[in-house]
Amino acid sequence: MSPPTISIVGAGLSGLVLGRCLKQRGTPCIIFDRDTAAAAATRYSYGITLYPWAYRPLLRYLDLNEATFQKTVAVDSYIGGVGRLSSHTRHGSNETDGFRANRRKLEKMLREGLDVRWEHDLTEISSEEGSNSMVFGNGQKLQASIVVGADGPHSQVRRAFTPNSNFTILPYAVYNGKCRVDPKTFEDKFAPHMNGANVIEHRIGQTLLQITVADRTETSVSISYTYSRPARGLADLGFTPERSAAGASRITDQLFDEVRSLGVLEEPFGEVFDAEKMRTDRLLNWLMRSISVDAAELNTGAGRGILLVGDAAHATPILGGDGANAAIQDCVDLAEYIVQNGTSDLAGFYGTKDETWRSYVRDGEDRLAKMHGQAGASLWCLETTVRVESLSGTYATVPIGSHLDGIERVYEISARTTMEDQIHTRRATRGTGSCWDMYNAHQSMGIAAAEDVF
């Protein structure tokens, strides 16, 4: 009996890795993506850091050795580079052997020969009698026994069967900018300070400045840069967790005032973080989101023939997270699982992943905090009032948006939704007087247990 065709939603990194691995192992698959083919050919031209633990298992599916792979997809491949990172290890890691890849180049390599159906924006998915019905924005309706949601942090597939999965919005003001410089300018103003690396950063207090090379061509060098710091309360215009997606491009003067306040910066930071120059760049206000789908909900979906991988299942913050590496590992492993075990027990795949996926999220949040000189993330209440209980039995009602400074040791944060009586619990790391964990209250009441509330 021939294996069923796997329907993959999303032709990003997760979907393409899974498609490539399944195809190489003789399992038919179709990938659906909302973009046009033309848009896909020009999107995602930015750098991502890849580590050997993720990309080496993929190489046999690409029939490439490691050196050829790096020289093909590295951000500086045009000049024969191999995507060298900065001269130091990343925060919270001993890894020094990763490299900087251009995501567009990598996805172009992965996409070759795959059956990708463009202009298929999934709008609805439902299950009935062992089959899944997918409805797309172009009017097409398709049946599939196995559907894999590889459609990123805002996964439409995830929304179909995990309505209680909500983002954690970490309290950081983060801005990303993109600009291009000509090769001569780069060699004169950037190269002498970067020493052959493709990532350079500078921290001033808890404010972090990063500059990365996204791509190099004959005529230009694409630069991506990030300005980030911990949020400073409800009046902070750089941290707007309730904003719409369109709101990401609304940049207030607060950013430019803050950049000016940094004073004279050493190069190449002075060249990039110039308030007047930044006004002409493509700027976005990023939210640092994470999500970890409950194991019970994942298993429910698997029982219907619906799986989640990559950011759809366990999104990590853009800064500090290992999203690309985790996605590659997920999809290589899922392809192997399907080839070896078939599709009758898809929940078995999750059995080996739950703690690993949760560690991706925890580690990403911890690294984000360390990048900004913090011990951990903050406890914020964004959607509702929260009743905080100390071990001594005292209580405090905390209003919407409060920043809970002064909790000496937060050991558990729980929320009880009023409609479904479900308990959502996250453990927090220890710390004193600064920042540990952040929590989005779900309905009208949340309960946070702590040892002290000042």
TrEMBL record:
Pfam families: FAD_binding_3. Pathway: Secondary metabolite biosynthesis. Signal peptide: none annotated. It comes from the Eukaryota. Residues 305-337 form the FAD-binding domain. GO terms for molecular function: FAD binding; monooxygenase activity. Its cofactor is FAD. Gene3D superfamilies: FAD/NAD(P)-binding domain. Keywords: FAD, Flavoprotein, Monooxygenase, Oxidoreductase. The keyword Flavoprotein applies. Belongs to the paxM FAD-dependent monooxygenase family. This is FAD-binding domain-containing protein. It comes from Friedmanniomyces endolithicus.
